[in-house]
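Hi R.,

As promised on Friday, here is the backbone we talked about, encoded as structure tokens. Could you run it through your design pipeline when you get a chance and send me back a sequence?
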């Protein structure tokens, strides 16, 4: 499966998808979140992190650009780094901050507004497209690497019909 499409009827649907993704992702993945303001990018990330075992607050790192979280995956400590590039003024700012080094085989990098970094970002393993649709969200997940394909194959999510 190279892509997955669904309609999420409400916030609970977004949270359920985040929880399902937390069980399907693996270290080394780069996940890029696309969607307008209010589309649910941070809500999806928050649900993923809480399902992965993070018990604290999860907020969008709009001003700090990145926020690391330590969680356990398969009994191993993993850093999930949440990026929000909305306020970034240029792709060079991403490079100057040294963020590219975070994209390695050990971390999971989740990036909101990846288009702000342009071509300096490594290619994603999984792209998530969120769009407001009525009271809910339309979501599409697209795999673009072996890691992304493996994630979609492990994804066990039944949309809230």
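Update: got your reply. Pasting your designed sequence below so it's all in one thread:
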């Amino acid at each position: 499966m190279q892509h997955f499409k669904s309609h999420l009827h409400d916030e609970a649907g977004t949270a359920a998808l985040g929880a399902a993704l937390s069980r399907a992702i693996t270290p080394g993945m780069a996940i890029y979140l696309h969607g307008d303001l209010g589309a649910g990018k941070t809500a999806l990330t928050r649900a993923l992190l809480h399902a992965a075992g993070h018990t604290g607050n999860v907020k969008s790192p709009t001003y700090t650009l990145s926020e690391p979280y330590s969680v356990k995956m398969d009994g191993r400590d993993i850093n999930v780094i949440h990026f929000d590039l909305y306020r970034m003024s240029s792709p060079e700012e991403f490079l100057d901050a040294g963020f590219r080094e975070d994209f390695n085989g050990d971390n999971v990098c989740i990036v909101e507004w990846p288009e702000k970094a342009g071509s300096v970002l490594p290619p994603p393993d999984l792209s998530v497209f969120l769009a407001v649709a009525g009271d809910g969200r339309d979501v599409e997940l697209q795999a673009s690497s072996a890691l992304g394909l493996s994630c979609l194959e492990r994804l066990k999510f039944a949309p809230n019909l």
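One thing I noticed while checking it: Residues 11-24 form the longest helix (14 residues).

Thanks again,
M.
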